[in-house]
Amino acid sequence: MTLLATLDHADADLTACLARVMAAVLKPGDVIALQGAVGAGKTHFARAFIRARQGAAAEDVPSPTFTLVQTYDDPMGTEIWHADLYRLSHPDELVELGLDEAMRDSIVLIEWPDHGGPLSDPLILGLEPIAGFPDLRRIALSGSDARWGGMARLPAIARLIHRAQWAEARLIVLAGDASSRRYFRLQDGDRSAVLMDAAPGTTDSYVAMTQWLRHRDLHAPEIIAADQVEGLLLIEDLGDDLVARVLAAEPALAPRIYGRMTDLLIELHGHAPPDWVLRLDGPELARQVGLFAEYYPAAAGAPGKGADVAAVIEALHAELAEDMPAVLGLRDFHAENLVWRGDAPLGLLDFQDAVAVHPAYDLVSGLQDARRDVDPAIEAAEIARYIAATGVDGDRFRAAYALLGAQRSLRIMGIFTRLAQRDGKRRYLAFMPRVWDAIQRNLTHPALAPLAAALEGVPAPSARVTDRIAQA
């Protein structure tokens, strides 16, 4: 048993806030042992937890002191058991109550767990009053690292939410991305916010870029509260209308949406990039595309092929792109990271890895999207739109566009292979044929003939190849 985390000087509101945070992440089969003296706040915690799980359907949660067990259903179809074993006369009565079966497929909260005998790998939540402060308590989370290690983050999350005056909010887990970050939506009446849970000490670049963008009237989410040591940010909720979802629901909006995306880049590129972002020049592009040669050819059954890709890309960048001043590139500029807000400016997400790079980089990121097809006529129109608005040399810009498109897609092939083989995230393999098609289109540009030669013998991601990667 390991002490995972503590929450000191917790009043009733902070205790309930921790319960709401835990309610967002616990799942069927989880058992919480609530320990503490009479009046320590065990039932208060359980009540807040259950009501958070139930959301708008929340019901009264009486103490189970006399009934021993109360059960509840949440909208997700999970049954929640709230037990008080203080009056239990013998551990065998657990079977009669049905708790032993409930622990397999329900969320179970148990007060006075020691009266029921040993439990199998529970999360222990101890509440201890603080001497001289009757309204405050110290909360300790303990359990096995293997099963409960992820719970160590939750007290820090509760502290930030409480400090930001969002303690009454209900948390809902939002879909994650390919990174290790996770996100929660906080709902409190008519207001909402988003909590970003990143690795400790990794939010500095996000905060700095947020401030840079907002200072230039580009709509990155406002930061409401932060604990940068813990890697936690409470930010403005831009809503659920990701451009990807809007395009799927209303395909006819595509010309307008992609036009707005190009206009946003034109505006962004009117500002010199900050000097503290990574410069994505030829050598760095070559280094990053090394992921392709490292992972994809061998996984596809052609070890050693594509070994010269990085060197060729560095040489082509020097020939085709280095004469143009770098602009700020958001790097992951595509429909999954933009929020459609009608006539209001597009909302920006996932920009903490921004770079100083050739102007074509983000344009090709948005128009050669790994996750969705973009009409070739729209792609051509937006390239022309950017060239006309900025006055760049059209021929050189198109050559650099093809080069950067190929580099990005090759790197993505390497990333998707690594995600499948190293991290078990195989869903990205389904995007590989589209990414490969983008590579082939870019290679038709005459200036990229050396890169086409460097890729000879590298197999396309056929079903046989992606199955091979998935099974490796």
Automatic annotation (TrEMBL):
Residues annotated as signal peptide: none
Annotated ranges, domain Aminoglycoside phosphotransferase: 173-390
Xref: InterPro entries: Aminoglycoside_PTrfase, Kinase-like_dom_sf, P-loop_NTPase, T6A_TsaE
Keyword set includes Protease: no
Keyword tags: ATP-binding, Cytoplasm, Magnesium, Metal-binding, Nucleotide-binding, tRNA processing
Protein name (record): tRNA threonylcarbamoyladenosine biosynthesis protein TsaE
Family membership: Belongs to the TsaE family.
Gene3D superfamilies: 3.90.1200.10, P-loop containing nucleotide triphosphate hydrolases, Phosphorylase Kinase, domain 1
Top-rank taxon, per record: Bacteria
SUPFAM superfamilies: P-loop containing nucleoside triphosphate hydrolases (SSF52540), Protein kinase-like (PK-like) (SSF56112)
Location(s), subcellular: Cytoplasm
Main location: cytoplasm
